[in-house]
Structures are given as structure tokens and as C-alpha cells.
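quick one
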Amino acid sequence: MNIEERVRLSRYTTLGTGGPARAFARPETLAELRDALGFAREQELDVVVVGLGSNLLVADDGFEGLVLKLGGELARAEVRDDLLVAGGGAPNAVALHRARAAGLGGFEFACAIPGTAGGGVRMNAGAYGGDWSSILERALVVDADDAGWRARDELGLSYRRSGLRPGEVVAEVEFRLTPRPVAEIKTLVADLQARRKAAQPTNKRTYGSVFKNPDHELTAGRMLEACGLRGHRIGGAQISPRHANFIENADGARSEDALALMAEARRRAWEQYGVDLEHEVVFLGDLELPQFEK
Ligand SMILES: Cc1cc2nc3c(=O)[nH]c(=O)nc-3n(C[C@H](O)[C@H](O)[C@H](O)COP(=O)(O)OP(=O)(O)OC[C@H]3O[C@@H](n4cnc5c(N)ncnc54)[C@H](O)[C@@H]3O)c2cc1C
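structure w/ flavin-adenine dinucleotide:
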């Protein structure tokens, strides 16, 4: 297993920010994945998988651990009967393509989610009323000691959350889908994509929703909009003028710019609404939101 050093993670995040990983590997089989995990254990390194980096904010000074990018067999997708079987690193677009070609419906909502099957498990990704927990049958979870299948109920899935522990890697996912005419799938996907395009910045570098929707009548986006934050800019990052729960890399942003915007957004939501917004984006490396006075 080839281990690279100091690979810049900005190449692997949709925001396009983030410093280097101390170690980086691209396992393509289960055996290579186990090797890489064994290496990390020997070297006492924390392990993190990067999917499509579509929900990741990586510290500008990087991550002092091993980053894995799943490829080869671990990033394929295929259909077996009414199961969609996807490697942990398989992009959702590829998995959806396979399902559609086989006339299997149920995965259409994922057309709006630019991640991977494994990243979707970690986040219990969802959109338009569907999420991973609604179609996931089981997932193959691997760590340095073990590899085993976990059924949906054993994965601790709830709103944008799973019970996966640090260092656990989703190597394969099985989704149970239902037969649906290909034309219907195409129409639904086109409709969802049009809705997405009308509401969110789709041609900008972002990491998706910044904050989870709070338990409040306003969504996080509407709340931040009402706080006057649309278009607010710090350094090279700005709150999307289109949708206030997105941060765009406007011009040479650094992760610290995005973090500063998040801190400002949380402070204003607290001051105006008494709501403590919880971030959805996952932090990698030494990143922390500053506390504000409550
Ligand atoms: C334009 C845009 C729109 C988006 N819309 C939505 C949406 O509608 N709904 C939604 O839920 N999300 C949305 N997102 C966020 C993001 O796409 C999802 O959270 C997605 O599931 C993340 O997948 P990823 O593979 O890119 O994971 P990454 O961002 O690379 O990683 C996210 C987390 O998952 C972990 N992870 C990744 N792969 C694995 C694996 N194989 N095993 C274990 N852990 C893993 C990472 O370590 C990290 O903790 C959007 C993002 C963008 C940029």
C-alpha cells in the first residue's frame, strides 16, 4: 500500500480549502484498506476517510493523521436483483446512474447530494423527504481490528448523524430499492435538480448546508437571511447571496474565513432568536468555533 505524505486536502474538498494530510492512501480493495488501517495503528495515527469532501471543512494547517480516499473496487456501484450495491467511495451520481439503468427507484433524492455512499452513511444524508436510513439495508464497516456488516438499525442513523465511531470506514453499502419505470425516474430526477437549482447555489464551491435546521419555525437558511447575512463576506469566503445557509468560496477563501463566517452566523442567530445553531459540516484538523457569550 503506497502511503503519500503531505497531500494537500484542498484538492479533495468541494470548498477547495484545507492544508495537507500527514499521510494519504488510496486503497482500492478491502485488503488494501485493512493494510492502510494497520499502518495507521502502527504509527498511532488517527484515520479519516474523505469521500467527495462535500461536507468537510479542513483546517488550513491540515490534519496530522492518515486520510483515505477509497477507489477501485471500493468505489464501484452495481445492481443485484433489487439491491443497489455501492462501494463506500462510490459517488452518488454513479450509484444513481446504475439504479436508473436497472429500473430501480428510491435513490432519486440523492441526485441533490454530491457525495459518496460511505459519506452518506456517516451523515445519514438526505433530501426531499428521503435519506440513507429510508433505503439502506446494511453497510460493511471496517476498522483496524475487524470488518463486519451492520444492519440499518445498528448504524445509529438520525438527522444528519450516525453512530459510526472515529476510525470506522464504510467499505460497502447495500440499498434496497423498488422497481420503477426508467422514464419516471428520469422525470423525478430532472424535477428535483430543477428545484435545487432554483433555490441553492449550484455552480459555486460550497460544502452544502452549513448548519442543521434548528427546532424552530425558521430553517437555518431563513434565520440567517433574517439576520441580514446574505452576501456577508469575510476574507475570500461569503455567505451565499442565494441561500444564507451556504458559504461560498468567493475568491481564494481559506478555511479560517469560512470558520469566521460560521462564528458570526451563530452569534447573530443566538442574539436575534436565542437559537444555538449546530453545524452540519464536519471539521477535520484543529478547527473549533469560538464560543460566544450566552
Ligand atoms: C452543493 C451541495 C449540496 C448538498 N446537499 C445536501 C443535501 O441535500 N442533503 C445532505 O444530506 N447533504 C448535502 N450536502 C452535503 C454532502 O454532500 C453530504 O453530507 C454527503 O453525504 C457527504 O458525502 P461525502 O462523500 O462528500 O463525504 P465527505 O464530505 O468527504 O465527508 C463527510 C464525513 O463523512 C465521513 N466519510 C466519508 N466517507 C466515508 C466512509 N466511506 N466511511 C466512513 N466515513 C466516511 C468523513 O470522514 C466525514 O466525517 C451537500 C453538499 C453540497 C456541496
